[in-house]
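Long-time lurker. I teach an intro course on protein structure, and each term I like to show students one example going from raw sequence to a predicted 3D structure in token notation. This year I'd like something fresh instead of my usual example. Would anyone be willing to generate the tokens for the chain below so I can use it in lecture? Attribution to the forum is fine with me.
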Amino acid sequence: MIALSNFFLEANQLKFAITAQQFGVSDWVWIIVFILVLALVWWLLSRSTRQSEVEEAEIETQVAEERTKEVAHVDDLTRIEGIGPKINSLLQEAGISSFAQLADTDVSKLDEILNTAGITIADPKTWPEQAELAAGDQWEELEKLQDELSGGREKKRR
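-- Reply from a regular --
Happy to contribute to a lecture. Here you go:
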């Protein structure tokens, strides 16, 4: 029986020796260092991802604020000779609600908006020029130009 217990004792000591040899103190240190490096890499990657998400959110917020400012700024387009309440409504439905937007719109696009609504009597050729003056707060120049117009059209000379 003593021989059998000595056998088990020696087997356990051998097992411990093999385990200690496989995972010696230096091996455990390397394993811990490896785990710490992995954790550091993961933290850095997640941090840069969060920073880029924050930057994207800030950019989206700025764009939304600019769009809100553009939409919030609605000019009275009826101050342009040739534009009445009905045409003003049509232009706003088409996304043209400020003098600056009207000044940047091609006459062909304005014609298209009017033709789609069945309005053929209005002539938008001078509207962008008038709108540019209005957008620049050049009201005196706008009045001079409008004195030369009749219903938004250039007066016919006799």
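Some talking points for your students: The longest strand covers residues 149-150. The chain has two domains: 22-71, 77-154.
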